[in-house]
Design brief:
Helix content is 41%, strand content 11%. It is of the alpha/beta class and 192 residues long.
Length: 192
Amino acid sequence: MALDNSFTRKEEYETPSVSDLQHLLLKNIYPTGPVNQVWPGIYIGNAATARDKSTLSNMRITHIVNAAHGPHHINTGARFYSNMTIDYYGVEADDAEDFDLSPFFYPTAKFIRAALSRQGRVFVHCAMGVSRAPTLVLAFLMIHENMTLVDAINAVRQHRDICPNAGFLSQLRRLDKNLAWERKKKGDTYKV
């Protein structure tokens, strides 16, 4: 299956295998900075940026999703940002292939959608901004922007190199298949 930016016939789209997705993710890798805007109002970045209140303020960030929340990860939290006007959402996730991030797909997507509906700017981060945070952003694009997994990956990779682990890719594949089934059942189509 050719994985490119031109899925013009969505009715023929099939969710690629994990190995095909990994090949897509490793194609044309370019260095990215600590934070990149990957979609209007959505930024993906690393822990250092999450702790840099001056940078967050200059970027006019209004919402933060910490995909590595918790005492053994990046322990920022709502209290850390209490002197700023920021809504915080923490996801206590490990960057491990056996960690199930999928229960957080819909709640995180809802948080991001609500922020964007109020013209907010959302910073989604984990330690490096490569696996956990991008996985949650990809899920958002699939759920709320009606994208296939491949289209979501291509949209984000135009702005940032990402590489969700194989376990997260499997979970995104399941989401992709479930969303396609739901759309087919409703008679909806993908955005082109």
